[in-house]
Amino acid sequence: MSTATSDNDLHRRSAPLDMGPEEFRRLGHRLVDDIAAFLETLATGPVNRDESPTEVRALLPEGGLPEEGSSAERLLAEVTPMLFEHSLFNGHPRFLGYITSSAAPLGALGDLLAATINPNLGGWQLSPVATEIERQSVRWIAEMLGYPGDAGGLLVSGGNLANCHCFLAARRAKAGESVRVRGLEAKRGQLLVYASTETHTWLQKAADLFGHGTDSIRWLPVDADLRADVGALREQIETDKSRGDRPFLIVGNAGTVSTGAVDPLAEMADVAHEHDLWFHADGAYGAFAVITPGAPAELAAMSRADSIAVDPHKWLYAPLEAGCVLVRDANTLTDAFGYTPTYYRFTGEEEDPRVNFYEWGLQNSRGFRALKVWLGLRQVGRSGYARMIGDDIRLARELFERVDEEPELEALTRELSITTFRFVPAGLEVGTETYLNQLNEELLARLKASGEAFPSNAEISGTFALRACIVNFRTSLADIEALPEIVIRHGREVDSKLRPAELRT
Ligand SMILES: *Cc1c(COP(=O)(O)O)cnc(C)c1O
To answer: pTM for the whole thing?
Structure first.
């Protein structure tokens, strides 16, 4: 096959990637039918298949980069069953791991449409409707969280990036424009951030990668409920200030990633206010719970934060990826991220300005991740989300109660929609913590491999816990009721093989 198109053929070009309308219709309809059938039977299959990387790689074509192409029809016929038969399904009703939600089917259709139009949401001119859809999505999310109508924000890939954007907005706001020009100037004192030991690892990444160093994080101890100790926060700030360092940022968790603990956000906001620090709420997991009746009262104090990071790909059930940056004062984003290159000339009317998102964040070219988020918000509204999130939380409570009733299970924590517990077999004496940790770790690996249910783990003051996090609109009470039996059955088997002789009675 020749690698060049002849000049003659370029007059009426036919590119190998293009697809005629008839073929697109035929392949598209078949794919949608296959997806519908997959969704129909999802719940009856395994959550996960226990395949090794070598086994999984063997599914892919052998050899190097293909020189010649294949037909689109053949490729879809090959890849569709491959994905349906060899994936881990976080949309399965018994997927209860990490914080990865089931994805709304309308979101999948939205992604198809978004990719078809393919607007570039870096600049308004390249994405007129799409940019306005993103702006409206962000405004609605801000409204859900109690933020004022003129708050700013944008969608990014997820919670990590949302938190990182807020970190950078905070540092520009508190350290001034000089930090953008001269960088971190050690002689002016170190810029310090305060957060509990339960904070997600995005904070280390931010401190490290943005040049502060992880030593600039002042880790706050937590109380018995794993919430930041505000007394320690106050003391640490005083100590650091008296030493000539520069506190700039307090991070509060609106639902920790491990157990769902909500920090004393109102008190942390007070401290930030007293010391003129930026207060950021990491609500990647828990923020949206604020719309449910009976949610932890502390969540309402998120609205006092200077910035909030949330994750539509968690409790708005948007397909990956969608995180959201929110700032109380929209100018703080352009202050931190704005540069106008010579090749971007997106001037608009003063009274009807065009928002160019490339000036609001790290990304330049940006995809239309807003569509799936916006469609979800419109499909079910605030009330639909309140109901689904409320149901997830109720199921976590039910699980806690079920676990608590089982003599061989020990219920540990229950916050938001996360319940942690562990398997404690009969006939064990005290002083066997090391063995219990080992046993539960083995048990977790076995549960994940079994395909029957997929919890994850948490470490609670040195205790290895099994952790069920329900951010899954497909999980029902029946799935929750089935869990204790599954855990105990596998737990007994693991225990019978693993327990050392000296612990046998
Ligand atoms: C999930 C989570 C993050 C990270 O978000 P990603 O979307 O995975 O990047 C950060 N903080 C908290 C509290 C989270 O729950």
So the answer is: 0.96
